[in-house]
């Protein structure tokens, strides 16, 4: 048996290393061709002036707003002054947002905006595209870093590129409505002839450390990644590649994080430049002001972007096909790419070695292994109970302090501290419980634990590999570590195995998606309890395999570690109470909203998801809580709505022709209708959402909700009509809620507090039963 072990181990390692060395490509293989012509100098000062104009002169630029249109006109003017051929591409697009775990009802939106397309012809038709979105996230976000900074860089590059002769044709596209879900870029790629495009570079949030974003529904070609990262190394710019996001975003409904992914969807090589890491509290907030933009960073990224546009060369023109299931790895400034064939070979060899090992162990003593099946199921039951206990109790610190401080979200400012505390508490619970496991009548044969853990990982890896090979890689690597553990029982291999599971979570924490993930985790805690409990079972089995292999040493260590583990748990729970919930970098969000309904007097509503600060409540002379109201007396609402209905009945079906007449001195930004009924219903409207613009096979119907009612939300950005018709077919009573949102340019109550981020808006809301 020892000879069999050695042969299999040596064969597995040699084959895996040979396959990886054959199928891994380094960045040295492909280098960008540097442009020998002396470039005009990029000026961060001039780029900064563009940012300043967009942020201070124009302000927040949400999709479809008049401010966004003003920004488009400014961008067009600058491009024309720099000698580019400029055209506007207006669009109105209907976006369907299906019901999800965080949004229960379907939402249908009509978004109107425009793309600004500039072209600088060269001697060749070969086209290189640079892109940046110029809209901001909402009515209160000035959008300095996101993404006036990217617009400023491209506008300055339009000046620089126009000064030097060039063979390629350059195209700069400034996208509208990116914040609504890449609407502008998706519209552009659906209409444009892309046959002459070599590649596309998108700039969204300028700064370092640099995030080279290659992850969309498709991934950027490896050839492009190698050239772009090589130039980053040559430029001395620290960078990160969104490797794990490749796995998380493929085949998703949203796609990538910015406009480059719309080009990837069409087979055009593309990637994006942004800032790596979890965005600070100013992201999509009123604090995204001019001071967030650094001249030094703009100079560095501007020069780098210029080098990319003039030096990166890809052979093929137009839409193409490339290996998409690769995985890039960054070691320092070196980039290694494991191709899809490399992943397949690595997976196959690991599966082959694992199968040989399992068969060898099973054949060693068939009768003994058959007798062990009852022990295996008993072990699995104990491990499941242990993992549920560990995962469930790991959140006791957050639960306790949420109750004491009366807040829902403790992690707002320091999520990494709470995550580290949760892991520490889980580890302490495991060590404390494990110290008593010797009293549980479990099998003392380490081979059973190894065999069970490897079998579980083998089954999971095989299923994932059949679904998508790159998705299986983290588990295949874990499986390989457990196979090696048979020969080298070591706690380091136990902890190394789930390494790529850890990194996926690290990517998630250092991203824009962390907030929504944490919200989903708390809202569906039972589902996540099951998922993480199942993930811990192979880890616990691997740990027990090592512990029982060295049982005397393990008992000694666990007996000595029990009290320190309990002390560590207590200290971690107590220390969480010292972590501030809000800081200047991550302030509490507060909304100050004028609320109007019908002919009633208005109310000034000040509210937050958490309790309002004591100082603010004291200034308002109100009671403690999440919400405060201040009456607005003797003033008219910002909009007047007259609703009427004409009803026709046929059998049990009611056909309602509903009309809304709107009278407003200032056009609202957003108009929304929420329709709800206890019976199914269908809507027809060309005034509010043109039916011709709806995606094929999409009908405006009520969606069944957990409450048992049917509902749907329709909304649109400007321009708005003052007469809106809705035709509804239903059997029951229809409730229609009309809502209009206005920007509050001069708020009645101005709050100044460094620990608060305040949104100001005006809302009119009225419900009608038909």
From TrEMBL:
Record InterPro entries: M28_fam, Peptidase_M28
Span of domain Peptidase M28: 115-306
One GO BP annotation of this record: proteolysis
Keyword Transmembrane helix among UniProt keywords: yes
Membrane-crossing segments per the record: 346-364, 376-404, 416-437, 449-469, 475-503, 524-545, 565-583
Alphabetical UniProt keywords: Membrane, Transmembrane, Transmembrane helix
GO molecular function: metalloexopeptidase activity
The name this protein goes by in its record: Zn-dependent exopeptidase M28
């Amino acid at each position: 048996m020892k000879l069999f072990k050695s042969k299999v181990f040596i064969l597995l390692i040699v084959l895996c290393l040979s396959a990886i060395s054959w199928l891994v490509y380094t960045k040295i293989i492909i280098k960008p061709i540097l442009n020998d012509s002396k470039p005009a100098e990029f000026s961060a000062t001039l780029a900064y002036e563009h940012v300043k104009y967009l942020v201070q002169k124009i302000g927040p630029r949400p999709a479809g707003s008049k401010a966004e249109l003003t920004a488009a006109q400014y961008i067009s003017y600058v491009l024309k002054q720099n000698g580019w051929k400029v055209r506007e591409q207006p669009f109105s697009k209907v976006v369907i947002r299906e019901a999800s775990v965080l949004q229960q009802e379907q939402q249908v939106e009509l978004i109107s905006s425009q793309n600004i397309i500039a072209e600088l012809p060269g001697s060749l038709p070969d086209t290189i595209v640079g892109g940046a979105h110029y809209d901001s996230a909402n009515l209160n976000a000035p959008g300095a870093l996101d993404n006036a900074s990217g617009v400023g860089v491209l506008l300055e590059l339009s000046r620089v590129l126009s000064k030097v002769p060039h063979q390629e044709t350059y195209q700069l596209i400034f996208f509208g409505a990116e914040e609504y879900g890449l609407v502008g870029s998706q519209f552009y790629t659906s209409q444009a002839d892309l046959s002459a495009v070599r590649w596309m570079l998108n700039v969204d949030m300028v700064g370092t450390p640099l995030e080279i974003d290659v992850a969309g529904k498709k991934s950027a070609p490896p050839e492009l990644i190698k050239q772009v990262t090589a130039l980053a190394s040559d430029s001395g710019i620290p960078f990160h590649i969104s490797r794990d996001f490749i796995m998380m975003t493929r085949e998703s409904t949203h796609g990538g994080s910015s406009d480059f992914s719309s080009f990837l969807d069409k087979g055009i090589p593309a990637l994006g430049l942004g800032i790596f890491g979890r965005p600070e509290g100013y992201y999509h907030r009123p604090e995204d002001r001019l001071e967030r933009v650094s001249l030094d960073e703009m100079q560095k990224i501007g020069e780098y972007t210029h080098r990319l546009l003039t030096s990166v060369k890809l052979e093929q023109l137009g839409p193409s096909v490339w290996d998409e299931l690769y995985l890039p790895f960054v070691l320092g400034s070196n980039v290694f790419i494991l191709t899809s064939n490399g992943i397949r070979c690595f997976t196959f060899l690991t599966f082959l070695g694992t199968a040989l090992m399992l068969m060898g162990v099973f054949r060693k003593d068939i009768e003994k292994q058959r007798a062990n099946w009852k022990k295996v199921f008993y072990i699995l039951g104990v491990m499941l109970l242990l993992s549920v206990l560990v995962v469930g109790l790991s959140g006791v610190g957050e639960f306790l302090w949420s109750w004491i401080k009366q807040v829902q979200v403790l992690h707002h400012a320091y999520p990494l501290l709470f995550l580290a505390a949760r892991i520490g508490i889980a580890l302490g619970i495991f060590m404390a419980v494990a110290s008593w496991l010797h009293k549980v009548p479990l099998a003392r044969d380490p081979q059973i634990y190894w065999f069970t853990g490897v079998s579980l990982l083998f089954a999971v890896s095989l299923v994932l590999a059949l679904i998508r090979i790159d998705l299986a890689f983290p588990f295949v690597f874990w499986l390989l570590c457990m196979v090696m553990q048979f020969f080298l029982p070591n706690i380091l291999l136990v902890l190394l195995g789930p390494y790529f599971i850890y990194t996926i979570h690290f990517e998630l924490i250092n991203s824009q998606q962390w907030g929504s993930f944490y919200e989903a985790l708390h809202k569906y805690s039972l589902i996540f309890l099951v998922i993480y409990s199942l993930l811990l079972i192979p880890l616990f089995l691997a740990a027990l395999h090592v512990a029982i292999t060295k049982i005397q040493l393990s008992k000694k260590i666990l007996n000595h570690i029990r009290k320190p583990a309990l002390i560590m748990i207590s200290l971690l729970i107590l220390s969480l109470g010292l972590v501030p919930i809000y800081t200047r970098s991550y302030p509490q969000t507060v909304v100050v909203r004028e609320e109007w309904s019908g002919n009633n007097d208005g109310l000034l509503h000040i509210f937050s998801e958490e309790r309002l600060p004591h100082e603010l409540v004291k200034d308002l002379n109100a009671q403690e809580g999440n919400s405060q109201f201040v009456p607005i007396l003797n003033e008219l609402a910002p909009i007047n709505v007259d609703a009427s209905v004409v009803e026709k009945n046929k059998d049990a079906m009611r056909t309602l022709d509903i009309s809304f007449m709107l009278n407003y001195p200032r056009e609202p930004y957003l108009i929304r209708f929420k329709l709800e009924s206890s019976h199914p219903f269908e809507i027809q409207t060309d005034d509010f959402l043109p039916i011709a613009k709806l995606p094929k096979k999409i009908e405006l119907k009520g969606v069944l909700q957990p409450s048992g009612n049917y509902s749907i939300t329709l909304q649109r950005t400007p321009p708005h009509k003052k007469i809106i018709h809705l035709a509804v077919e239903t059997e029951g009573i229809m409730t229609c809620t009309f809502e209009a949102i206005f920007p509050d340019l001069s708020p009645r109550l101005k709050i100044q507090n460094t620990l608060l981020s305040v949104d100001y808006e005006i809302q009119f809301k009225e419900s009608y039963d038909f």
